[in-house]
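User: tokens in, sequence out, please.
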């Protein structure tokens, strides 16, 4: 079984149950590009190598064993959405090798089953190819952790853990949160900011008579001379708008209805509606700080994870502990040390990309 054939099986099973949900289109486009954890990616690589090994050594694997592995792979694929996403991301890398399928190295690998010496040589060649793919997958994972790859060519971007401030020609000031991206479209009658990923805070300038518009896949926002925050990360199925000063007009992409959002309020803009979401969120992040009151440790760790490469794990039973205080987003090692000291925990460092909070 090749990677392309198993990907086709996975896509086919997904298409069988596919349903159209227009209001969720934007969320789906973002979700399929979201990074997966290192552990899940490693599982996907292991499955790819296992299935590819069976194809390359067809006479060595009994048909019933191959079918059992194929069934187990399907179960793994359906067990969690991250599994399918990891498989799809590996498939994109595998596509880079499509032109090499019929190369002499691959043909030698397929012909080597009956010759022990050739088999050993071919197996080494296969391991080398697999290692290259695994290394590319790891590099792609790391790059996607830095910034979603599909937005790497945006006009303005910020990497993981980076806070960036941009001032446009008219004096408009934009603060980019970690892993954020937007484009600027200068038109005859308006200036359009297309938020592609992450979160930005906008303080409008007054050096241009053209209207300023912020657009996302869910609709558009028209500030009325103001300070406001636009967030694509939470919730996953809409655009969160928090207004700190003045007001912002929110308009869904699929409806003509508009809603004026005053200072101090937060709404969720969907493609077909605008939902109330209570008080405006704090904007301490723009100053590199996380301020929480009676939040769960699991929630705090999830937020800190947005600002560092790799993974932060919690020992069993810790996620529900309550936390209040201020923590640095610019230095997440310091934030973790502060959490550990406050809650009498220990920071355990497994690798450069994996740390844990334990008792």
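Assistant: Sequence out:
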């Amino acid at each position: 079984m090749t990677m392309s054939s198993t990907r086709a099986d996975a896509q086919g099973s997904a298409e069988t149950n596919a349903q159209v949900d227009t209001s969720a289109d934007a969320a789906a486009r973002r979700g399929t590009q979201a990074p997966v954890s290192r552990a899940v990616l490693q599982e996907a690589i292991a499955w790819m190598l296992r299935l590819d090994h069976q194809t390359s050594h067809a006479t060595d694997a009994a048909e019933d064993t191959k079918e059992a592995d194929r069934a187990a792979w399907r179960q793994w694929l359906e067990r969690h959405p991250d599994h399918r996403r990891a498989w799809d991301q590996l498939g994109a890398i595998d596509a880079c090798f499509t032109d090499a399928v019929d190369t002499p190295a691959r043909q030698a690998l397929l012909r080597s089953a009956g010759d022990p010496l050739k088999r050993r040589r071919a197996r080494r060649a296969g391991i080398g190819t697999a290692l290259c793919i695994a290394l590319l997958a790891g590099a792609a994972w790391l790059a996607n952790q830095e910034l979603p790859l599909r937005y790497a060519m945006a006009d303005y971007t910020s990497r993981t853990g980076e806070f960036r401030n941009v001032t446009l020609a008219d004096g408009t000031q934009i603060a980019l949160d970690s892993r954020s991206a937007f484009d600027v479209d200068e038109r005859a009658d308006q200036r359009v900011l297309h938020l592609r990923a992450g979160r930005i805070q906008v303080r409008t300038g007054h050096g241009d008579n053209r209207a300023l518009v912020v657009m996302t896949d869910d609709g558009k926002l028209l500030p009325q001379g103001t300070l406001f925050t636009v967030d694509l990360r939470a919730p996953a199925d809409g655009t969160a708008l928090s207004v700190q000063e003045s007001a912002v007009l929110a308009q869904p992409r699929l409806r003509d209805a508009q809603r004026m959002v005053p200072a101090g309020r937060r709404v969720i803009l969907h493609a077909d509606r605008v939902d109330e979401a209570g008080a405006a969120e704090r904007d301490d992040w723009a100053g590199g700080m996380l301020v929480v009151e009676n939040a769960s440790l699991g929630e705090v760790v999830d937020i800190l994870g947005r600002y560092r490469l790799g993974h932060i794990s919690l020992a069993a039973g810790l996620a529900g502990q309550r936390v209040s205080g201020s923590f640095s987003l610019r230095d997440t090692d310091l934030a973790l040390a502060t959490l550990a000291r406050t809650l009498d925990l220990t920071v355990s460092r497994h690798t450069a990309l994996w740390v844990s909070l334990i008792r």
